[in-house]
Design a protein that fits this description.
about 140 residues, two-stranded antiparallel sheet, 4 helices, elongated
């Protein structure tokens, strides 16, 4: 039987990584809201590193011998539940970020459409993909 003292540090580290990920997701939301592209790029790079570390720890935990037996232990279930709670918070924050980004893109598209419409009302047309565009080609008639 594997001692809890050998596995608990892995769980603690996993929970720490998930807490960092949650903080990064909240920073990402702030960057999306403020339209700070540089900060968003930094968050994404650090987030990828964090996700790789989480994945590596998952592999280490999955490689533990007698893992199925450990899953029945109360301390194991309790620690796993705490990690799952943080993971759920990360998933919810990621969904919020996704919806916020989609709304932001829709607002930019709507604004772009309004600008195009005001710029050339008579020449407003649509591309093959249904996106608005200004037809700035002349009639080709020279006087």
């Amino acid at each position: 039987m594997i001692e809890p003292a050998l596995i608990l540090p892995l769980f603690e580290k996993q929970q720490e990584h998930l807490m960092v990920l949650l903080a990064l997701l909240k920073s990402e939301l702030a960057a999306i809201a403020s339209r700070n592209v540089e900060e968003l790029d930094k968050c994404c790079a650090v987030k990828l590193e964090c996700l790789e570390q989480i994945q590596q720890l998952d592999a280490q935990i999955a490689a533990i011998p007698n893992l199925t037996e450990l899953k029945t232990q109360p301390w194991f279930v309790e620690k796993l539940q705490a990690i799952d709670d943080v993971l759920q918070q990360c998933k919810e924050q990621n969904e919020i970020n996704s919806l916020t980004l989609q709304q932001s893109q829709l607002i930019v598209e709507r604004f772009k459409h309004e600008l195009l419409q005001n710029r050339g009302k008579s020449g407003l047309t649509y591309t093959a993909k249904g996106k608005p565009a200004v037809d700035n080609k002349g009639s080709g008639i020279k006087a």
